[in-house]
Fold this sequence. Notes:
The chain is α/β, with parallel strands linked by helices. Helix content is 44%, strand content 23%. The chain has 11 helices and 12 strands.
Amino acid sequence: MTFKTRILATTALVAGIAASGVAAQEQSIIVQSTTSTANSGLYDHLLPVFTQETGIAVNVVAVGTGQAIKNAANCDGDVLLVHAKSAEEKFVSDGFGVERFDLMYNDFVIVGPDEDPAGVGGMQDVQASLEKIASSGAVFASRGDDSGTHKKEMSLWASTGVDPTSGSGAWYRETGSGMGATLNVAVGMDAYAMTDRATWISFENKSDFEIQVEGDEDLFNQYGVILVNPAKCENVNAEAGQAFVDWVISDAGQTAIASYQLNGQQLFFPNAD
């Protein structure tokens, strides 16, 4: 091989590597996500299956739902997967998302110490239990971070007519943190807290805490998935992002969601239609 031939061969090799690098880069997406799906281990279960079937790598940014929606609206992602339906529908109606799909559900629960100072243990009426917590002055730890869980909590307080923020710093403690950190605060303060069931099942620092309130239909927790609109965000990898959306709402994706268990308990229940 002449020197010139070697140069041409080397140039072709470098060009080939660069081209393959671009192709590999195109085969990845960013999912702006709520924290519960990440903290529960669901993505560790789902994403390897998706990547194996499609060749598309998924990078998850796990933050509160409110922040995830802001990030996606700022074009910092390809797919949005959160749990605040009205905010998700607004995201789509404002043109930031293409279409919203129901994905799966579980429920919220109120947890608290075994001694149960407000006497709400075993209650199924969530509004009545919140009223008892407020009237008793028992400490309640709130995320206070505009997450999907915080949005739901505030809507439940609103339905009781109680403004918990009037007790801010006294019986009502806003952490401004994620669910795991808020549960740690609650355990440390013997405070009640509202959490999604999946995070509670996977939470390891339960101490003497247990579920005190559950079973109210108002504690239903729906998750949705949305492709970020490439018409708004030119950098969106629409083809790969749509492939992810299509897969998680397909029979294969829904079966994978249903099969995920922790400590013998199913954490999420698929309901894409």
